[in-house]
UniProtKB/TrEMBL annotation:
PROSITE patterns with a match to the protein in the record: AAA
Single GO term (MF): ATP hydrolysis activity
Keyword ATP-binding among record annotations: yes
Alphabetically ordered keywords of this record: ATP-binding, Nucleotide-binding
Stated name of the protein: ATP-binding protein
Biological source species: Nocardioides seonyuensis
Family membership: Belongs to the AAA ATPase family.
AAA+ ATPase domain location: 97-210
Biased composition (Acidic residues): 1-11
Chain spans, region Disordered: 1-41
Pfam families in the cross-refs: AAA, AAA_lid_3
Length: 320
């Protein structure tokens, strides 16, 4: 690193002073006559850079880091990961490597997290058709794929939705090797045309974590931190109704408390059970509002059966 810095400094010294601060300096040489001359004149620094998003393309998270959601993981394995990893089997069964899947459910319960994990598993880039096989992930697709009737006054957005439909259909393009994953916590705002066969025809409900999942999520968020002996099962018991994000926040708060204590003590004092209990008690679960809205759709807007899974979950909870 030190070497590189020295190199840069040396180069800078050789440059004429005006090239450093005058924006027009790059064009100080005579205007090129031909395109080739122009291209020759461009320095390597002007070459197009990989977009920043490239850094996201090899996420470190894997499905093992996602707490709970066993059924969701199982379905993702069957529809994406197994066909992807077993090309011969795929050929024997004539299974194509393409598909669109929508993850939906309350906020903070792992939709975005699981999408990153799948990309981590596939070793696929969040990238484009050129780099197949790849995973294209539309997070919060309700913002992009809004019902076109709601977009009456926004021609540009309607164009985006129409274009997305055309791309997904693959009529104008070959989509083999292209997985399209989307996530939403407002599925009722999504244009139903997006949910037809061949597009996002599969949907997966990502529900709040059950007790075992909450325990796993707590363990995940405390894994690299100094802790006393903790009873995570007990914490899981008192966090019914918490989302993964709520649990992550509780761990964050308890960590801050332990750090304060350590600061004052002048030595590391690991995170204790009571600090986590206090953090949990100070947090209001964030999915209540969503559940109320969703319940209305499940009760009064479920002609197509799209909310059956959610309705079943709500019945189950009421019985408990
Ligand atoms: N199942 C889980 N396992 C581990 N951590 C989780 C899980 N669910 C949520 N989390 C934690 O909560 C954070 C927020 O979750 P995430 O961003 O995936 O929620 P989301 O479902 O996409 O919510 P939204 O609908 O608001 O976008 C994650 O970054 C992670 O730290
Ligand atoms: Mg999200």
């Amino acid at each position: 690193m030190a070497e590189a810095l020295e190199g840069d400094a040396a180069q800078e010294d050789q440059q004429p002073p005006e090239s450093r601060d005058s924006p027009g300096a790059a064009f100080a040489s005579p205007v090129p006559e031909t395109a080739d001359e122009l291209i020759d004149g461009w320095s390597a620094a002007d070459a197009p850079q990989e977009p920043e998003i490239g850094h996201l393309s090899r996420p470190k998270v894997t499905l093992a880091d996602v707490g709970g959601l066993a059924e969701v993981k199982q379905r993702l394995q069957a529809s994406f990961l197994t066909p992807m990893r077993n090309p011969e089997l795929r050929l024997q069964f004539g299974k194509s490597l393409r598909g669109g899947l929508l993850l939906w459910g309350p906020p903070g319960c792992g939709k975005t997290f699981i999408a990153r994990a799948i990309a981590g598993e596939l070793g696929a880039g969040f990238s484009a058709r050129r780099n197949r096989p790849c995973l294209l992930f539309f997070d919060e697709i309700d913002a992009l794929g809004q019902k076109r009737s709601q977009l009456r006054h926004s021609g540009a957005m309607r164009g985006v939705v129409n274009q997305m439909l055309a791309e997904l259909d693959g009529a104008a393009s070959d989509n083999e090797g292209l997985f399209v994953l989307a996530a939403s916590n407002h599925p009722w705002d999504i244009d139903s045309a997006l949910l037809r066969p061949g597009r996002f025809d599969r949907t997966l409900l990502v529900l709040p974590p059950d007790a075992a999942a909450r325990e796993a999520i707590l363990a995940y968020h405390l894994r690299d931190r100094p802790t006393q002996h903790l009873d995570l099962a007990k914490l899981a018991k008192i966090t019914d109704g918490f989302s993964g994000a709520d649990l992550a926040l509780a761990c964050e708060q308890a960590t801050e408390t332990a750090m304060e204590v350590s600061m004052k003590a002048g030595e590391v004092r690991p995170i204790g059970q009571q600090q986590l209990v206090d953090a949990v008690r100070s947090i209001r679960p964030s999915i209540g509002e969503w559940m109320q809205v969703a319940q209305n759709y499940a009760l009064y807007g479920n002609e197509s059966g799209a909310y059956d899974e959610l309705a079943a979950y709500m019945r189950l909870r009421r019985r408990r």
